[in-house]
Write a structure and sequence with these properties.
With about 70 residues, this protein is of the alpha+beta class. Helix content is about 30%, strand content about 25%. A 4-stranded antiparallel beta sheet has the order 1-2-4-3. A hairpin with a 6-residue loop joins strand 1 and strand 2.
Length: about 70
């Protein structure tokens, strides 16, 4: 399942955060038991926020479920 590009960005850091740009995707992940680890300003647009989650296969599966619902 291919995920929409605007939904995520993986940072190459030891923490392996998944950066979510979509509020609706972030809400979906929280409803499915994932914790937001940090909310930050977008590097591309300081008026927008991004939501950081720990990346995992389970997180990716929940994201794929969201894209099927959309």
């Amino acid at each position: 399942m291919k995920l929409k590009k605007e939904w995520l960005l993986i940072l190459n850091k030891p923490e392996n955060y998944c950066v979510i740009h979509s509020l609706s995707m972030a809400n979906h992940l929280v409803r499915n038991g994932f914790d937001i680890k940090k909310v930050d300003n977008s590097e591309k647009n300081n008026k927008l926020k991004v939501f950081l989650f720990y990346d995992s296969p389970e997180l990716r599966q929940a994201m794929a479920t969201f894209s099927q619902e959309a």
